[in-house]
Amino acid sequence: MDDSKTRPAHTMVRFDHDDLSSKAAALATAAAPRPRMRVVLNDEPADLRVALSAYLAAVARFDASRARRIVSEVAAVAEVPALLFDFVLPALHGVAHDVSRGVLARGHEHLVNAQLSDCLLGRQRGIDVAAGSPRVLATTPRGHRHEVGLQVAVLLALVRGYEVVYLGVDLPDDQIIWCARACAPAMLLLGVSQPLSDAEREHLRVIAAELPATVAVWVGGRTLDPRGLPERVAAFTTFDALDAALARQHTTFSQRLGA
């Protein structure tokens, strides 16, 4: 999923000029569209790309400690939309792009996934949701193991006021069905990390058919082809679209709970 949105105009983050290598700037340019969020670098206004390039430079040289500090600095001051759409997603997409080109190694991607996963989990723990809020059951089907994208979706749902039951990744179909029946969510949210095979589409049809009609079934992934999916399954290929749908549907789900 790839997105940009209107975010807060000013957020304060501080970094050293030494981190701003030409290689980092090139990586940041490849990683994401120009973000709108602003940071402060050595007391001078700067684009968030400066922070992103500093992070990617640290990752490129496997300076995990420096990279982690940058993530912590951004996460400490950025509101969730800015954190996700101006930093986390561009970093993920940029590193994946450079791994595919042979510029970076698979280990760089694993480092970024691990650090950003920790960051997202930390932000999730800090969000309190009102009692009686619509419940979302979030997981990925068997064979889909990319957890960071699912955690982004979970954080968006929490910010929108949903209670989230997070089951991690790679859950067998029968367990998805059993858990959905047991916890009675308003929505089953499935993340997929690669194009669905014909067999996986059939599995999705079975999952949707086995759940009560009151449970919405949403599936999201950058490479998801919505054609041929069951009619009751809503498909999302961008986080912007998912976030907008979460906002729209919250009232509907809440009214069902109160009925």
Sequence-ordered SSE layout with sheet pairings:
Layout: H1 22-31, E1 38-41, E2 44-47, H2 48-60, H3 64-77, H4 80-100, H5 106-125, E3 135-139, H6 147-159, E4 163-166, H7 173-183, E5 187-191, H8 198-210, E6 216-220, E7 233-236, H9 239-258
Parallel strand pairs: 3-4, 3-5, 5-6, 6-7
Antiparallel strand pairs: 1-2
Helix pairs in contact: 1-2, 1-4, 2-3, 2-4, 3-5, 4-5, 5-6, 6-9, 7-8
Helix fraction, binned, reads 40-55%
Which structural class fits the helix and strand makeup? alpha/beta
According to CATH, what is the class of the largest domain? Alpha Beta
Q: Rg from C-alpha positions? A: 19 Å
Compute the number of structural domains: 2
Supply database-style keywords.
Rossmann fold, 2 domains, 259 residues, single chain, 5-stranded parallel β-sheet, 9 helices, 12% strand
Describe the structure.
With 259 residues, the protein is an alpha/beta fold. It folds into two domains: 17-125; 135-258, 3-Layer(aba) Sandwich (Rossmann fold). 52% of the residues lie in helices and 12% in strands. The chain is built from nine helices and seven strands. The chain has helices at residues 22-31, 48-60, 64-77, 80-100, 106-125, 147-159, 173-183, 198-210, 239-258, and strands spanning 38-41, 44-47, 135-139, 163-166, 187-191, 216-220, 233-236. β1 (38-41) and β2 form a beta hairpin. α1 crosses α2, α3 runs parallel beside α5 and α7 (173-183) packs parallel to α8. The two termini are 35 Å apart.
